[in-house]
Prior knowledge:
Layout: E1 3-6, H1 12-23, E2 27-32, H2 35-45, E3 48-51, H3 57-69, E4 75-78, H4 99-125, E5 131-135, H5 142-145, H6 151-154, H7 159-177, E6 182-186, H8 204-215, E7 226-228, E8 231-232
Parallel strand pairs: 1-2, 1-4, 2-3, 4-5, 5-6, 6-7
Antiparallel strand pairs: 7-8
The structure holds NADP nicotinamide-adenine-dinucleotide phosphate.
Amino acid sequence: MTTTLITGANKGLGFETARRLIEAGHTVYVGSRNAGRGRLAAERLGARHVLLDVTDDDSVTRAARTVEADGGLDVLVNNAGIEERTPDGGVIGPADVSTGIMRTTFETNVLGVVRVTRAFLPLLRRSAAPVIVNVSSGLASLTRVTTPGTPTYAYPGVAYPASKAAVNMITVQYAKAFPGMRINAVEPGYTATDLNLHAGTQTVEEGAEIIVRMAQAGPDDPTGGYFDVSGMIPW
Ligand SMILES: NC(=O)c1ccc[n+]([C@@H]2O[C@H](COP(=O)([O-])OP(=O)(O)OC[C@H]3O[C@@H](n4cnc5c(N)ncnc54)[C@H](OP(=O)(O)O)[C@@H]3O)[C@@H](O)[C@H]2O)c1
């Protein structure tokens, strides 16, 4: 029996990933920072719910204790993420980005990953087949962001892609440190969710595909990589 925790699983890609992994036989914890939204999502999915705000040390510690007391963890999907927008929904570019926006974004997208991973690492180390999936973004690819003529090049944001580039680096360093675990970063693709005010061109079913696949990585599968649904992508 594989037990999986997905942060920010009350909606969007996390919710769809939970649905698919339950279908595949996993026992899934829906991590949610809001008790009501989390419980509702867990009920709809037939999942367990754990209150978990990735920006809050106490919340993350309590969640790890709960999951440990229930029997431990095999798969951690660091999915919770934010992208700050202008009041009219625009991307915040270099002229307008502030240290405050950088800090808020990194608190959730980067420190959140480290905080949650650190808390659940002792549980994962006791698993026979531990897996971590860090939900990154194609916008983190320095290669793509510097290749003129691509949608990634045209994207003007600063805080969000910088945070996901940090997630990629964290992924690589953890993967090297824990070779017995499968630890990968994934790019779901541009998916219609609340994050982008549903401007994304893919469905959540399409976007969750690579997250679901990497959550089921076995000992012979790659670690320390950066993947979308078609395979490895350039850093
Ligand atoms: N959609 C895309 O095109 C796309 C592309 C590439 C990568 N991604 C990544 O995919 C992941 C999921 O995003 P999504 O598109 O599914 O967006 P979404 O629908 O907005 O879902 C984001 C989830 O993260 C949760 N969250 C935010 N801050 C949190 C915190 N402090 N603690 C716990 N949970 C928190 C949200 O909870 P609340 O409901 O409480 O706000 C929500 O459940 C993110 O890491 C995002 O960067 C998305």
